[in-house]
Amino acid sequence: MDYFLTDEQKMIVELARKVAQEKIKPVRQEFDESGEFPWEIVKELSQADLMGLYIPQEYGGFGGGVMELCIAVEELCKVDGGISLSLAATALGTFPIIIFGTDEQKKKYLPKIAKGEALAAFGLTEPEAGSDAGATKTTAKKDGDFYILNGTKCFITNGGVADIYTVIAMTDKSKGSRGASAFIVEKGTPGFSFGKKENKMGIRASATCELIFQDCKIPKTNLLGREGAGFIVAMKTLDQSRPGVAAQALGIAAGALDEAVEYAKTRKQFDHPISSFQAIQHILANMATDVEAARALIYSVARAIDKGDKDVSGASAMCKLFASDVAMRVTTDAVQVFGGYGYMKEYPVEKMMRDAKITQIYEGTNQIQRNVIALDLIKKSAKKK
After folding, report:
1. Residue (of 60, 47, 38) closest to 18 by Cα position
2. Among this protein's residues, is 363 annotated catalytic?
3. How many domains does the chain have?
4. Pick the catalytic residue: 68, 74, 198, 363?
5. Which tens digit of pLDDT belongs to each residue from 25-57?
6. Is the residue at 27 inside a domain?
């Protein structure tokens, strides 16, 4: 379908496709097996000016928005959903600064991110605070012109490789979620270290590790927004970032569909290509319909955010929920179309299936997304009365 992309957006798609096909595709299996972080690919993304797509021009970025981020992530993830996270996860860590940062904070951090000189990460999840973000135990105690952070974050994408972290910590536990605040923490700050690097099922080229704060002293100027607004910072950030996760899921699904179609045209059984069999045609038809529906929803939500729609929580959750479920269905079907070969690592669809699963889990499990959607429906229904 024609989604009426602008000439600039079409250029972004072509640029991302070129990087994906020429730079990522030849090494995707190698990085999946080794679990190493793809620094050389990050350089390629930086040189192609893709790292700053969603960052305002006055801070060194392209000046695009969520839509530009989504179309680039989708195209990159058609080839590899793990390597591409160096861009998508950096956006997650950057959105809090874009939305809530002061001009001084933006001038200090955004140009580095836009140029690809620094990656970013978002520190919200903890061992006992995943879906229940209000159960955050990491603390930030005011000490004159500084805050002292103590606690541990886990499952942090870009953890260890990022230079800039937006971290949610409790400044007043007695207030529950209203006692949380958001901070910018730089790699190398005394008292800030990293724990184990996780050995994951999928997205193995993406770095995932613990963040450890032990009497980590940061200046009060690193507070994002006001004290006590941390939960709002986190939720508003996720409203804008979830279409990016949806785009990752969409890209993985679209890539699996492309692989399945090509394989079905060349694989022969009973002296005919399996694409001639109705059973296979119906699988491919369902896959294609799912992919197109997910794309339409994601693009619609991304454009709404970029136009300034503030009430996007439900729609943002919808596109993340739907696209990630689509990614699992489509990649599972792609493995089925490939048959026994689909289960083998020599073919890309088994990796796509492994990579797809995380999109149903991080940035809010799909069960949490359904909660968000339902609460949004109930709230809007009450307003109509």
Report:
1. 47
2. yes
3. 3
4. 363
5. 999 999 999 999 999 999 999 999 999 999 999
6. yes
